[in-house]
Amino acid sequence: MNPSLPRIDGDAPSLTTASGSTELAEALALPALGFDRSCAGCHLPDCDLDLEKTLNCGQVFHWLPQGSGFVGAIGEVPVYLERSGRTLITSADHIELAQTYLALDHSLPEITATFPRDETMQAALKFCYGLRIARQPPWECLASFITSALKQIRHIRAISLAIRRRFGPALRLGSLEVHGYPKPEVLAAVELSDLLECKLGFRARNLLAAARMVADGVLDLEKLRGQPTNQARSELCQVPGVGEKIANCVLLFAYERLEVVPIDVWIRRGLQEIYFSSQAKVPGTELRSFSETYFGPYAGYAQQYLFHYWRLNYRKRR
Fold first, then answer.
1. Residue 15's closest CA among 84, 69, 70, 95?
2. What is the CATH T-level fold of the domain 136-255, as seen in this structure?
3. Which fold would CATH assign to domain 107-131+259-318?
4. Does pLDDT of 312 surpass 80?
5. What is the mean pLDDT of residues 54-68?
6. What is the mean pLDDT of residues 87-93?
7. For residue 33, what pLDDT is reported?
């Protein structure tokens, strides 16, 4: 998290190992996953996690529905996640990993209290409450958003899954097979023609160049953690295919710079219509400056709520 922002841990969610608990064991005893009858749950204070919105809001692109929950990978660990009442259900050895990945230490009441009180923001808050900014591995996040250019979420998801299945490590979760994202060293060694088979189009060349920059040490993704936001953004923008919007996505979703606002087509459209309706087309730099001031210290959260709200409700509103 950006050290200039106040820490928002609040009360850490309590962990409960639930071996022998009928309710939790039955929830995890999905035949396809092959779980045994022991499992664990993480109690969610105030029920402030919407797992579906968190995993389907356009920040991550590889989680798939399975039973009453989702399967995917956190790094190279295959994981099942399910929300049941006030409990986040996963296997016992994945509790802390899931807790960190889903940012359950982020106090949503404290974060959302900083949002402006205008009608649009409050409607987005009501619609999206429980959505959390996940903590993604930097390379996976950077690569995913390089492949996102000019694509809708369903297309980005298809590309991400194709890359994982073709080049990523196969991970077993019971009888299911999921795939981690291929490391930069792996993608750096593949042929451009192989990447093109994943339906990347022009993005393939950019992804290959990015993988080689990271694999060769030209771009040190871990070093960016300690850099000021503007410096980290500038370094990310040296990567082919990365402009300010993608760089800001990586800063928000991988480096926990919660004040950063990516300006994509949905955010640009919404800001223009709601907050700059009396003006002609407003430059992106002005929209970003406005957003990072108007939406407060957690403007990245506000942006994601607005993005998801507008994306799913824009046509209905019209």
1. 95
2. Endonuclease III; domain 1 (1.10.340)
3. Endonuclease Iii, domain 2 (1.10.1670)
4. yes
5. 95
6. 86
7. 54
